[in-house]
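User: For documentation purposes, I need each entry recorded in a consistent format: the amino acid sequence on its own, followed directly by the corresponding structure tokens. There are two entries in this batch. Please keep commentary to a minimum and don't merge the entries.

Assistant: Recorded as requested. Entry 1:
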Amino acid sequence: MKAIMGLECHVNLLSKSKLFCSSPTDYENYEPNEATCVTCLGYPGSKPVLNKKIVESALMVAKALNCEISPVMFFSRKSYFYPDMPKDFQITQYEIPIAKNGHLVINGKKIRIRRIQIEEDPGKLIHVGGGITNAQYVLIDYNRAGMPLIEVVTEPDFENVQEVREFLSKLQSILEHLEVYDPGKEASLRIDSNISLEGGERVEVKNITGFADVEKALSYEIVRQQNLVRMGMKIERETRHFDEATKTTAMVRKKETEEDYGYIFEPDLPQFTLPEKLIKSIDKQMPELPDARVKRFTKEYVIPENQSQIIVYTEKALADFFEACVKLFNKPGYISRWIVTDLLKVLNWNDITIKKSKVTPKLFTEFLKTMDKGEITERLGKELIKELVPAGKSVKELVKAKGISAKIDLESVVKQVIKENKKAVEDYKLGNEKAVQFLIGQVLRKTKATGDPNKIKELIKKLV
């Protein structure tokens, strides 16, 4: 049974003030309900004023996603009666969004973008003593109410969860390169997904955060629907919630139709014209986007394309880090290999990003240079990087803490090992290759794995 999925991606855009008022967006630094004003709390008589920066940021996203820009746009009221929206309606775009008919290509497949719309975020519900379906009571924090969002709505072009993951990874990379979004902020990217089996009714799973949870939620929902069909049961149109603790979805309500929201034109905001001059100024602001950066890395630095893709799409800060390292140590292939195979592994193990780690380009390149000069082995390097990432100490400090000298007279050590292991030397002279491996092991033990095994072997052959 083939699954069909479409996404609604709610992106929190960077701005100092909210979408329709001057209340601050750094609400994490405030007590609950303090980063608010009469407008975002929906007081009678308060009037919204559109944040120009958000319009410009939304236009940049639309350009990056190959969308058609609307020459005019206006806002509507989406009525719904839930406590997280004090006005009992959300200001959003419905009839004419800021952009439509775009696409994003993943692995040669075009994922169509139906529309991009600007809207305000509701407040935050805090479920105490349980989850959304069984909490003892609910608290409301309106600090998030009125935060500026764009909603990127796709067509139902996804056929499996892996495609969804790749799309979100690429979308996030684009947003970071545009510098309109911070993945570290709370609720910065939330996903609603419509899922159906071919020919069946669709189910919406709302407010999924984190790529891993998106995969788990969609995978669970696909299997749930398939099992219902196998048992001869009907799939009903409904809205479901993903429970992070149980990794399952639960029914929240029967799905509303568009008519249930009672969209009407927002009377407190005018129709906005997007002049050609503004569109052209956005064109000039557009930075190098991820796809172009991958191609440049592959060509300019002569590194494998898959390494370029990992570095660029993992995090913009990682791509910036790579280029900063190349400026300090002109061996891009060596740098990219260590980033992809070891640095990322340790960052993931410590659950941090390069941006939040203590590893600087200077520290990392000094670490690589020490191995490149043969002062320590790559084998030791793979152990030291596990401490380098969380500690942010130089390789010299790490080596000193282990009681290792980074500069060892390797020839003297080899001579000493030859002198102490005469039988192994004689066996090697008789053609026993295992004997040389034993001798190499003895040298590595004495040098605490700081010597290069290949150089040690050459010295043994030379001195025996």
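Entry 2:
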Amino acid sequence: MAALTETARPLDADLLRRHDVAGPRYTSYPTADRFVEAYQPPQHLQALAQRGAAQPLSVYVHVPFCEQLCYYCACNKVITKHHERAQPYLDQLEVEMDLVAGALGGHAPVSQLHLGGGSPTFLSDAELGSLMAALRRRFRLLSGAELSIELDPRTVDAARLAHLKSLGFNRLSFGVQDFDAAVQKAVHRVQPFESVAALMLAARGLGFTSLSVDLIYGLPAQTTQSFARTIAQVAGLRPDRIAMYAYAHLPQRFKPQRRIVAELLPPAGDKLAMLSGAISALLGEGYAYIGMDHFALPDDPLAIAKRQGLLHRNFQGYSTQPDCDLIGLGVSAISRVGATYAQNAKTLEEYEDALHQRQLPVQRGLALTRDDLLRRAVIMALMCQGRVEFESIAASYLVDVPAYFAPELERLAQLAGQGLVVLEPAAIQVTPLGWYFVRAIAMVFDRYLQADVSRERFSKII
């Protein structure tokens, strides 16, 4: 990362506008919209069996339930105040765990576990305890493993935080989005700053290893001034990590967003100003920019991994964990096993129906081609290390990199002219400025995207 004096300046408005186009987030390549329904449970079972249980896994568990609808939300969720709906879902989760563990052929070690949703804290303390016990019966959670959970601050108190600590969780992710009262009302998610601050203070006292905060810019009723205040408040809380996402208003795809008053959405220019101002403010507060919407304090393992060129990326975003297979459990969850992706059914009914028949709930997926694997390696090198060494790619995939990617390198020359990359004789290097546009750089190597005229299913990349 360049020195603070070089990076704390506001980003060039023209560059931001030029690259504010639709595109993927690249938590995978190929992206999930390329999955096919021809990929079914037998293929996933085969991939699990071939992998076996020797190497450490990352495990993601999706808990879809929320008590209240947040209007901006595009997650797979079930809105209900009927907490009795959780237990049947947990029962089916155990069936899925049995099927996966059986296919792996052993008590597979796990180095990273993440509970997301929805709102995992919709579950009661007893239900969370039983879920963790069920996971420990089927998998071996390694000493020092990262155990994280997403929190809806409205559903927890200090006692619940203590219970989460007793279950082994060491990382907490607070869903904040914005602290401005008018914005919170506009998106139907009211949670005062004071309550979140008290929870974070309690979490620090309990000894959680890492606290992170999620923010969204571009929400209704947001202004550059109001979002600047939120950034200042968050920085004052000193979370170890901050994820700051652009709001994508796609009401034709996500029904809850139809409740948002479109006239309240900030204009594109203001949205870009929010991003630029927030980056400058967070860098000024001592945070390091990791890439792709993520910031971390300099002594956080994520920032250290960035400096050492050891970042990795999976469906949960950036990670310090060595590149490993991911097992997704629960409705809509996605797994990555070797050269395959598999996604579970997206509705509770279809998910539970498959498991009642003791079948994996996989509904679609993808077996990657040689070209997919090659391009995945290049894209992940760009997203994580900011550098592609032609020699290492050539040795792994037996290709002449400059010849294979001649059209892509030609397009990259335009980005080099904008100061985003440096094209070396045997490497591609992302510049300090280029890190803020790394999605645009990665998109150059996306064969599917380059052939796709319509990108309406994607959000803007800035």
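Summary note for entry 2:
The chain has two domains: 1-30+370-462, 33-326.
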